[in-house]
Specification:
The protein is an alpha/beta fold. Helix content is 45%, strand content 12%.
Amino acid sequence: MKIVLDTSVLIAATRSRRGASHRLLTMLPSPGFDVALSVPLYMEWMAVMSRPEHLPSGMTATDAEAFLRYLASICIPQEIHFLWRPFLRDPNDDMVLECAVASGSRYLLTHNVKDFSGTRTLGVHAMTPADFLRLMD
């Protein structure tokens, strides 16, 4: 099964080692699911994760880039041949949704589930990392 990770999941995973986001990332690579990633989504990950306000204590922008390069290396690359925009209120959320639809991902993991309302009509279920981990158990 394929999933897509919203940037909010990466931020949460780097801020706390106790949460579901961190647990999810420590499972990668996983025999139970693959993470799909498009170039636009990767560029958003890089832009957001390298901001000083999102860097955990002791981590530099170079560390964040190395982490994201590793994460990208274990993801399934996904090209986008169509745009669903505008579908959601935030264009950056549309970019995440486009990756999910193009890759045939069943789940889009985010901490902003309400921002992805209506995605089920496209066959994509937005849920939190905690809900996804419960589903996997």
